[in-house]
């Protein structure tokens, strides 16, 4: 299997299996896909407590280990602390480990850089009265709790997610253990070049969620002005030249660029193809350059449900003017 390296030098599979069912798939369906994925060769599984399926995935992991299909040491299992557990990170981590039946987590992420909560499955207009702007001290307190979990052996690596450069600038020098990875939205129409390069320059591996533009994301995240990456003529032309699906082009581009994609699919044909496509027939330098021109600042996960009282709109979450919006 093709491998990449985390910022601390540890090896990690170059593609993972996402488990966010996008409010469209049951925990049983996601767990069945994970079982099929591991049997097909996936070794990196990207989980999160808020996805609501870690218990079912854990049953699959336990079953496959018992059958001798895979050993725990060969799996790279990631989970994330949800926003409402920032003050009780150990409790949340232990629950994920118990549900996943995995003994420890290879990486534990802060899912969002603030404790702003929304109920699972809520609509785009939902707001919590307790939501607050980003706080360096709150974030660092949450992060330091994960550092303690590393010392206890419950967590091997720490990851962050959905960060911005201004937020990083406010906290990186306050952390004892450097983040090994940054999970962020990355696809051909949303390449985030500045943040991508910043992430790499500061020793973090970029991990790409929605690597194909996520045509099956939750309804609340769909906007009529969104662009479908896989429908772009440039992507279709490259796919035609290689005799592959446009989704495979997006994944080949991701790995070729140096970011680790975590696509989600419950269809065996698709998740097997996703795994296989990065192992052969890489895109040419010219094709990579063509895709580099497709940046359209097409953010799909806007995060409206995390807005606080006084925020103007979802743009405030992403510090687009280079300063943290309070």
UniProtKB/TrEMBL annotation:
Gene3D superfamilies assigned: NADP-dependent oxidoreductase domain (3.20.20.100)
Pfam families: Aldo_ket_red
NADP-dependent oxidoreductase domain boundaries: 15-293
InterPro entries: AKR, Aldo/ket_reductase_CS, NAD(P)_OxRdtase_dom_sf, NADP_OxRdtase_dom
Protein name per UniProt: Aldo/keto reductase
Source organism of this protein record: Ohessyouella blattaphilus
């Amino acid at each position: 299997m093709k491998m990449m390296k985390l910022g601390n030098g540890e090896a990690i599979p170059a593609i993972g299996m996402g488990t966010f069912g996008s409010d469209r798939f049951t925990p049983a369906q996601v767990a069945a896909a994970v079982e099929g994925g591991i049997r097909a060769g996936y070794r990196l599984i990207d989980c999160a407590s808020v996805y609501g399926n870690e218990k079912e995935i854990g049953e699959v992991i336990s079953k496959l280990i018992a059958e001798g299909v895979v050993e725990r040491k060969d799996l790279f299992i990631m989970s994330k602390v949800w926003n409402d557990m920032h003050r009780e990170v150990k409790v949340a981590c232990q629950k994920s480990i118990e549900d996943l039946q995995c003994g420890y987590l290879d990486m534990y992420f802060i899912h969002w850089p603030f404790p702003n909560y929304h109920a699972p499955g809520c609509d785009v207009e939902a707001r919590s009265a307790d939501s607050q702007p980003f706080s360096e001290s709150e974030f660092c307190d949450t992060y330091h709790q994960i550092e303690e979990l590393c010392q206890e052996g419950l967590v091997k690596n720490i990851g962050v997610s959905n960060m911005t450069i201004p937020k990083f600038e406010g906290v990186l020098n306050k952390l004892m253990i450097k983040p090994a990875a940054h999970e962020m939205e990355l696809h051909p129409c949303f390449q985030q070049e500045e943040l991508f390069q910043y992430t790499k320059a500061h020793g973090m591996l970029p991990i790409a969620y929605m690597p194909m533009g996520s045509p099956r994301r939750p309804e609340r995240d769909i906007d009529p002005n969104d662009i479908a990456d896989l429908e772009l003529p440039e992507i279709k032309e490259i796919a035609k030249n290689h005799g592959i699906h446009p989704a495979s082009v997006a994944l080949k581009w991701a790995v070729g660029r140096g970011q680790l994609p975590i696509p989600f699919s419950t269809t065996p044909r698709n998740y097997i193809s996703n795994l296989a496509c990065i192992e052969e027939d890489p895109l040419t330098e010219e094709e990579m350059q063509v895709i580099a021109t497709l940046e359209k600042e097409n953010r799909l996960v806007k995060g409206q449900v995390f807005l606080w009282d006084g925020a103007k709109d979802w743009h405030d979450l992403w510090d687009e003017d280079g300063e943290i919006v309070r």
